[in-house]
User: Which sequence fits this backbone?
């Protein structure tokens, strides 16, 4: 079953690729923790909004008089971009790698990867059920 054309699976693949590359960059930061003048790096997170905007919109229609009408409420919370790019810690040799911060990012990346692989697995099981195959 080829699911590579489905938007959800394209997004999952894109996120997994990004997480893999981020893990590599973080490992490089950790390996250069004692290199004088080395600045820690991180990958810019992919923009999934652009991926979602590429998907054609499907109009929702009430096909039964008993269907409830949706209500769109304004969002109470807004995410703001954190523009503070100051390093967590700068050493005497002007190295900006903080092992604690890098290890936190590595652990965050691992947790995100586990979440994405679980999401992939669950959606594949649902797809198999939909076509009549036993998931597993």
Assistant:
């Amino acid at each position: 079953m080829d699911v590579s054309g489905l938007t959800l699976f394209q997004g999952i693949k894109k996120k997994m690729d990004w997480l893999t590359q981020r893990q590599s960059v973080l490992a490089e930061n950790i390996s250069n923790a004692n290199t004088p003048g080395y600045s820690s790096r991180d990958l810019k997170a992919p923009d999934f909004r652009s991926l979602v905007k590429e998907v054609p919109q499907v109009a929702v229609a009430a096909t039964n008089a008993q269907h409830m009408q949706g209500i769109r409420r304004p969002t109470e919370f807004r995410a703001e971009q954190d523009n503070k790019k100051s390093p967590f810690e700068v050493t005497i040799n002007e190295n900006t790698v903080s092992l604690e911060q890098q290890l936190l990012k590595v652990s965050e990346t691992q947790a995100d990867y586990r979440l994405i692989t679980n999401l992939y697995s669950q959606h594949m099981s649902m797809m198999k059920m939909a076509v009549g195959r036993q998931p597993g």
Remarks:
- The helical segments are 7-31, 48-53, 99-130.
- The radius of gyration is 21 Å.
- The chain has three helices and no strands.
